[in-house]
């Protein structure tokens, strides 16, 4: 386990039970493509090339699992666009913005990182 890996353990669940966890993640945005970029890694195994193939496979999230993402942007100037180039074809992708506030909502498989871009007037 490294410092940049988040781990959560849940116990005392009956076999076949579903679990819903809510994580609030606050971070500074980076500049990318003339926009502010929020990047959320959701696919762990490829980052650890030193793992055996069995260990890497055990760390992968099954394709049937996904993530529900709700991102709220609060910018210094009016928002002109919100995009999600990594998941632009996901049917659940939606976004809205008005003034300095915007939202992006997405249900996505955990098979690649998520990149959300927000552009502002200034």
The low-pLDDT segments are none
Count helical runs: 1
Integer-rounded radius of gyration: 17 Å
Instruction: Briefly note the structural class of the backbone.
Output: mainly beta
**SSE order, one letter for each helix or strand:** EEHEEEEE
Average pLDDT over all residues? 82
Distance between the termini: 40 Å
Share in helix: under 10%
Question: What features would you describe in this structure?
Answer:
- The chain is mainly beta and 122 residues long.
- The protein has one domain.
- Helices cover 6% and strands 36% of the residues.
- The protein has one helix at residues 53-59; strands spanning 30-32, 35-40, 66-74, 79-83, 94-98, 101-109, 114-120.
- The strands form two sheets. Strands 1-2-7-4 form a four-stranded antiparallel beta sheet, with no helix packed on it.
- β5 (94-98) and β6 form a beta hairpin.
- The longest helix is centred in the middle third of the chain and has 7 residues, at 53-59.
Please give a handful of descriptors for the protein shown:
single chain, about 120 residues, four-stranded antiparallel sheet, three-stranded antiparallel sheet, 1 helix, 7 strands
Q: Can I get a quick summary?
A:
The chain has 122 residues and is mainly beta.
Please give the structural blueprint.
Elements lengths: L29 E3 L2 E6 L12 H7 L6 E9 L4 E5 L10 E5 L2 E9 L4 E7 L2
Antiparallel strand pairs: 1-2, 2-7, 3-6, 4-7, 5-6
């Amino acid at each position: 386990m490294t410092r940049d890996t988040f781990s959560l353990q849940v116990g005392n669940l009956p076999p076949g039970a579903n679990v819903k966890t809510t994580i609030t993640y606050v971070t500074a945005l980076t500049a990318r493509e003339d926009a502010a970029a929020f990047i959320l890694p959701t696919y762990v195994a490829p980052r650890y090339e030193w793992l055996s193939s069995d260990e890497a496979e055990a760390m992968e999230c099954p394709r049937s699992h996904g993530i529900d993402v709700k991102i709220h942007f609060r910018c210094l100037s009016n928002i002109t666009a919100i995009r999600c180039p990594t998941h632009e074809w996901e049917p659940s992708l939606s976004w809205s913005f008005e003034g300095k506030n915007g939202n992006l909502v997405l249900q996505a498989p955990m098979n690649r990182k998520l990149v959300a871009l927000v552009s502002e007037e200034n």
